[in-house]
Amino acid sequence: MIIETLQNPRPAIFPDNPGFGRLYTNRMFTQHYTQDQGWHDARIGAFGPLPMHPVAQVLHIGLAIFEGTKAYRRADGNINLFRVDRNMARLNRSAVRLGMPEIDPATHIDYIESLVKLEHEWVPRLPNCTLYIRPVVISTEETLEVRIGKKFLHYIFLSPVGPYFANGFNPVAVHISHDYVRAVKGGTGEAKTTGNYAGTVAVAEQVRPHGYQQVLWLDAVERRYIEEVGAMNIMFVRDGKHIVTPALSGSILHGVTRESVLQLAPDLGYTVSEERLDVDEILADIEKGRITEAFGVGTAAVVSPVGKFGYKGKEYRINDEKSGPVATHLYKALTDIQYGHTPDPYGWMRTIKID
Ligand SMILES: Cc1ncc(COP(=O)(O)O)c(C=O)c1O
Q1: 15 lies in a domain?
Q2: CATH code: domain of residue 132
Q3: Distance (Å, rounded) from C-alpha 326 to C-alpha 291?
Q4: Residues spanned by the domain of 200
Q5: Which of 57, 69, 237, 293 could form a disulfide with 87 if both were Cys (CB 3.0 to 4.6 A apart)?
Q6: Quick one: which atom of ligand 1 is closest to the CA of 252?
Q7: How does pLDDT run across 277-320, given as a tens digit for each residue?
């Protein structure tokens, strides 16, 4: 890998709350793929615009996949990566679904570690702040044909971030969409690809003026079973101690946080299950007080309590629209492992030593 020398790198100075996805570091990683050479020309250079042919496939048929993972500043000054192997495995599953070339996971993790190490000053030292890592693969092939690509660009950039939601660890309001769907079994819902998101943003915008920050999607066939939120998987708490989440249906993203909570929660004294969840039954249980909490789980927000759902013109409030004890417990337990405040019995963390 070539590491270019930067001319005038900016000092790593950013506000106490850097927001989410507003600031970028000085460097990024890039490499190219052709059928003859495979992945080649790996380099870390200056962060900046990508030269792009107007006919590049990504601009027309959206051949693009991406990942999102984070680097956490430890109290000893070193830096933790959380389950980055799971993100790289998912990137390759997304690649296979879109007919893209895979990237050797170990090499990919090496690239991430090298980039984060060079940019270590940008990993915030403030509580609840992290360095967000975004690997992307796009087809740069110049063709109007609708077929798999033969030329790709893989790049990774970094963004110091604060909490995903402006109000931090406070409950969000979630609109349950009945009129629109996100993904269908057999489609691309399990892949982290741009099209899955492109179809959702206008719907989210429609409900924003009504006070909803997120949309919960139902299955596309019966519009009855709960799937996931815009950028999070969803979990419910029954009677204060049982955590239930929709089973992976073929159209839900296999969230790394979801997988981690399902593994961690039993060690914290909760029972867990993955089920097919009927929206009417869940909402009835909320009304009866049998569902005591709901929360989203994902890399960006980690655990995000839901204060109320809106569905077909009616509102369903949970736990008086306050953050509940289970969400709070899980958030603390997971972030304590991620920042290295408590031991990691699961082998989830990789530590990058900063000299
Ligand atoms: C649609 C969707 N669901 C769920 C998640 C949560 O996945 P993870 O925990 O791997 O971030 C994300 C975020 O990546 C997402 O975009």
Answers
A1: yes
A2: 3.30.470.10
A3: 12
A4: 172-338
A5: 69
A6: 3
A7: 999 999 999 999 999 999 999 999 999 999 999 999 999 999 99
